[in-house]
Amino acid sequence: MSIMPGIPPEAPLQGSGIALAAWDNAFLPALLPLFRDEPSLRLYQPSAYAVLDLEGLGRLLSDWNDGDRHVVLAILEGTTLAGLVNVDDLDPEARSAEVGLALLPGPFRGRGIGRKAMECLLDYLFGDVGLHRLQARIHEENKPSLRLFDGLGFRREGVLREAALRDGVHRDLVLMSLLGREWRSARNSAAPGTGNRP
Ligand SMILES: CC(C)(COP(=O)(O)OP(=O)(O)OC[C@H]1O[C@@H](n2cnc3c(N)ncnc32)[C@H](O)[C@@H]1OP(=O)(O)O)[C@@H](O)C(=O)NCCC(=O)NCCS
Asked: Of 6, 15, 86, 162, which residue is least crowded by CB atoms under 10 Å?
């Protein structure tokens, strides 16, 4: 249990062609290729990154999925691990948190899985859990991610100047946010079955 009731979900969250399930260490071997893919890690992690072995990855996931303010959910396509979503810095008073995601390198990318996983996560966090605000910090050069969060209705609040460190060089992060009422309003105005977004 985290400090927020409803997190993690008791049963997998069903999205469109994907599900989000409470993290299970049985997924670790399938996750390892992501953490051995340096280009992915450079975009996924805001600062230091490391290419890990299975033991190191287990320690990292326990740290990220601390059962309190930080939660990781597995993205499943059928029964296959496609990636993960992370919810960080849960604040039960302000009802806010930060979100992120990463898909395994290769065939899971570029098919809309990232968008579907985030839609499912936003429905859950703004709906079932009742959060008020979500934010994301995205590397300025991460075009797929910026496009994904733009498409979900996140607004660009500004730039965290030189907040990330890569190869000894400080780089900018884009700060984006979405409020619960904005998500509900966008969801309600999307005509069902037309594919209109979000
Ligand atoms: C970012 C990431 C999660 C996107 O997931 P995905 O399933 O591949 O993305 P989707 O297929 O849902 O596409 C999302 C949008 O990005 C666009 N996109 C996808 N790949 C792209 C690319 N290589 N260049 C530019 N745009 C791209 C899509 O066209 C889509 O935009 P649209 O809906 O306006 O057409 C995935 O690429 C990833 O895991 N990257 C590595 C880790 C990472 O960067 N995480 C984000 C940290 S915040």
From this structure: 162
CA of 179 to the centre of ligand 1 (A): 22
The residues lining ligand 1, judged by C-beta closer than 6 Å to any ligand atom, are 40, 43-44, 83, 100-103, 109-115, 136, 138, 142-145, 147-148, 151
pTM, two decimal places: 0.94
Burial 85-97 (b: 16+ CB within 10 A, else e): bbbbebeeeebbb
Structural domain boundaries enclosing 169: 13-189
Residue 78 located in a structural domain: yes
Which pLDDT value is given to residue 26? Answer: 97
Query: % helix / strand / coil in the chain, to the nearest 5?
Result: 30, 30, 35
Total number of domains in the chain: 1
Summarize pLDDT for 106-148 with one digit per residue, the tens.
999 999 999 999 999 999 999 999 999 999 999 999 999 999 9
C-alpha 109 – ligand 1 centre gap (Å): 7
Whether 3 maps to a domain, the answer reads no
Ligand 1 probe mutation, 103, 152, 171, 173, most atoms within 8 A of CB: 103
Instruction: Evaluate whether residue 2 is within a structural domain.
Output: no
- Work out which ligand 1 atom sits closest to the CA atom of 136: 48
* Residue 4 is assigned to a structural domain of this protein: no
Report how far residue 103's alpha carbon sits from residue 109's, in angstroms, rounded to the nearest whole number: 7
